Each structure stands twice: as C-alpha cells, then as structure tokens.
Amino acid sequence: MYIESYGCQMNFSDSEIVTSILSKEGFDATKDITQADLVFVNTCSIREKAELTVRKRLEFYNSIKRNKNPKMLVGVLGCMAERLKEKFLEEEKLVDIVVGPDSYRDLPNLITEVEDGRKAVNVFLSLEETYADISPIRLRGNGVSAFVSITRGCDNMCSFCVVPFTRGRERSRDPESIIEECRELFKNGYKEVTLLGQNVDSYLWYGGGAKKDFKKASKDARENSVRFADLLEKVAKINPLLRVRFSTSNPQDMSIDVIDMISKYNNICKYIHLPVQSGSDKILKLMKRGYNRSEYIKLIDDIKKRIPDCAISMDMISGFCSESENDHLETLSLMDYVKYDFGYMFKYSERPNTSAARMKDDVSDTTKQRRLSEIIAKQQSHSFLHMNDKIGQTLEVLIEGVSKKSDQHFFGRTTYNSTVVFEKKEKKIGDYVMVKIENCTSATLQGKII
Ligand code: SAH
Ligand code: F3S
Q1: Which ligand sits closest to the CA of 47?
Q2: Which range marks the domain in which residue 401 is found?
Q3: How confident is the model over 313-336, as a mean pLDDT?
C-alpha cells in the first residue's frame, strides 16, 4: 500500500493508524506509488483549495493506473470522503473505496468487497471510536517526534468550519492508552510527543462515552474524571527528557490549570497555538467562536503573566462574511497587542452546509487577498521581532534532523517551537544540545552548540 496525507496533523496521525490496521492484514507500506496495489489519499476539506489539491492528485493516480499499474485500487480517506460520501464514486470514476475518519477498522472488509468487484463506502461517524488500542506505524520517520491523538471530532460548530461535519462529535481517548503509547515512544528513542485534538482543552475522560453524556455519568465517574491539565501532567511525568507539545487550544476552553501545568514542568513546551480567527467582536460573534476580543486578551494576559516568555501562535481568517475595513483594522490591532510568534493565515473559503454558507460571502476576493497580505506582512515583522530577541540567548534545542540546506548542519526546535540551524559537531539526531543564538531570519535561528 501507498498512502499520502493532506491537511492537518490529525490526518497524518490517522494515516499511521490506517497503516497499522492494514499491516495486520499483510500490507506493507511502499514509498513508490507505481509498486502499490492499494493507493490511499487521506484528504482535507477545510478550504476549497485543499479539496482541489486532492482532485489534482486523483488525476495523477489515474494516469499511473492507466499507464503503469492497471490493477491498482484507489481509496479516498478522511474529511473529503466523509463530506462527499457516495458522490465521490460518481464524480471520480477511478475511486474504488470511500472511507470516513471513524471507519478505518472496516478497511480490510471494504478491500475485500472491492476485490469482489463492488465499490465500497463506509462513512459512519461514531460517538466512541478513538482507535485507542491501535499502535500507529510511524510514517514521518525522524524517530524523534511523534503525534499522539487524544481527542477526535469537534462539538464547537464554528460557523465557517466543516470539521464538525467531517469528523463528527467530540470524544476523548482513554488516558491509560495515551500514556502507554507515549511511554512506548520514549522507550523507542522518541524525545517529543505532540498531543493532538481539534480542541485539546476540552479533553475529558470519565470512563468512556461521548463528552455530551458526561452530565449523565455516575458521581464516582465524574469525580475521577481526567481533564486536559491532568493528562498533560501524566504525560510530562513519563520522563523529563520527553518533550510534550499539544495542539490545538481553543481560546474558549483553555483554563488557568493548563497554563500553570506548562510553567510547572520544564518538559512541557512553552508554546501555545491559540487560533483567534479575527480581532473584531462583530466577526467573532458571527463565527460563533464563543469568546470575544476582551476575553481573548484576558487569556493572553494570563498566559504572559504566568509564563512571560511563552510563545503564542494563531490562526487568522481574512474576509469572513460582512467583514468591514474597520473589522480588519481590529484584527491588525489585536495582532499588535499580542505580537504572535507565528501565524497561520487564510482567506475565508465558504464550505457547503456550514452555517456561514447561509450568510453572504460578500467580501471580494481582491479585498480578502489584500487584507490577508496585510496580516501576513504584520505577522512576519512580529515573527522577526521574536527571532531577533533570541539573539545572544543560549537555548536548549532538540535535534530533529539534517538541515535541508547543508549536510554539515542540523536543525532542531527550541521549547518555543522556533527552528534553529547549527553546525553538527559530534552530536546526533535526538540529542538535546545548548545552542548560542547568533543570527536569524523571520523563520529560523542560527547558532553554535556550546
Ligand atoms: N480546532 C481549531 C481549528 C481547526 S481548522 C480551532 O480551534 O480553531 C484550522 C484552521 O483553518 C482554523 O483555525 C481556521 O483558521 C482555518 N479555517 C477553518 N475553516 C476555514 C474556512 N472555511 N475558510 C478559511 N479558513 C478556515
Ligand atoms: Fe472547526 Fe471551530 Fe472545531 S474551527 S475544528 S469547529 S473549534
């Protein structure tokens, strides 16, 4: 089998689960698509552009199937499979299998169905599936850092977002299975885990079941429940040499306990990805984000009070329905207040069936693009400020690989998630080193091991 992944970290993590499920059936992963009997693409629906990228890849698979490998089966996994369901089979004639994010355990049966000459679809969304017992087969092999999913789905229903439709209701994974997976990773030489969920701060384990049923659980179950801060502590305690990261924090759910836990443990990285989407109260309300500008600022202040050097990043959307020039200026002024370390910035893209799709997508593409460019320019200047600030400091870096630009150099990351490039010396991938920062661009730091 050959598997390709698009979109968020969760998709990359899911592909590792799929690989594990199929390896039990005797499928080996290959990196050469022309050798594969089975080709999977794990898809993303978050913006129209993401879907177009996948459509292009399907054309490419089609050409391979026609010219080199006529027996090859093609499966579409993930969010686009869930969103389009059977329609995929009608639209993309070469697709044989369509499988949503909660149905990967059914893959062996679906493959058999296709081998029997039928098309196979399973897009059932579950209230319980977390793949807790499946040990992912790591595909992104640096052997140093791994993704570990802790929740699936999302209950927030932000008006612009397709995720609640494609990934279903939010549910949390058994903490024991999470700890076990992280322990195993550390035993195998991994030095960093990133705990993944759409909204990690709403992690809640009370012995099984969907989050929405928590209120109905027994008193005992509720009292012994595990929340995200507790989970972070359990993972941090595995070993001080295992770095812990997490993503994504939703501002509406992030609690002081989590911030305190970051400052309590040296191995929990001082970096919080805190998507804001807009700086305007009017737009935040239309987006149904569940916080307003002043609540968001209060959270930022709380973080900076407790962890003054904490790095913070955001996601931002330009040109959401009815966004005025004034709303856009509020976004820019919020950025000036927070001075984010990093940012992931997008033009609003209407997604079918979301509640925003019923609003007017009335900001022209030119305006969306111009506002986006202004946001990106501002972010670059802020990123540069933060990078510049680090010059002269000596920072701990976990070595993750050989620099793309020079085989005499390694790259790694600081606790703040900034990338550092430095000469190799006698060190190896997976080592922690102290690096004195001497120079920077807006994206990387350069330094020397001391
Ligand atoms: N769970 C995360 C978001 C996951 S989606 C949160 O709490 O915010 C990743 C990012 O994609 C979002 O933060 C948003 O900035 C962007 N995004 C989602 N839907 C979008 C849309 N319809 N158009 C443009 N960007 C979108
Ligand atoms: Fe999407 Fe909002 Fe959830 S952006 S993933 S609905 S927190």
Answers
A1: 1
A2: 394-449
A3: 98
- Mean pLDDT is lowest, of 67-71, 148-152, 267-271, for 67-71
Domain termination residue (choose one: 389, 414, 429): 389
The vertex-397 CA angle with 396 and 399, nearest 5°, equals 150
Please work out whether the CB of residue 363 comes within 6 Å of at least one atom of ligand 1: no
CA of 233 from ligand 2 middle (Å) equals 25
Tell me: do 361 and 435 sit in the same domain: no
| Banded pLDDT at 408 (limits 50, 70, 90) | very high
Phi-psi region of 227 (alpha: psi -120 to 50; beta: other; left: phi over 0): beta
CA distances from 133 to 20, 180, 200 (A): 11, 10, 20
Query: Does some domain include residue 289?
Result: no
Tell me what the pLDDT averaged over the chain comes to: 95
Ligand 1 centroid to Cα of residue 110, in Å, is: 31
What is d(CA 168, CA 186) in angstroms, rounded to the nearest whole number? Answer: 31
State the distance from the centre of ligand 2 to the C-alpha of 205, rounded, in angstroms.
20
314 and 424 inside one domain: no
Question: Rounded CA gap, 340 and 281, in Å?
Answer: 19
CATH number at 33 reads 3.40.50.12160
Residue 230: CATH number of its domain:
3.30.750.210
What digits encode the pLDDT tens for the residues 145-166? 999 999 999 999 999 999 999 9
Nearest atom of ligand 2 to the alpha carbon of 248: 7
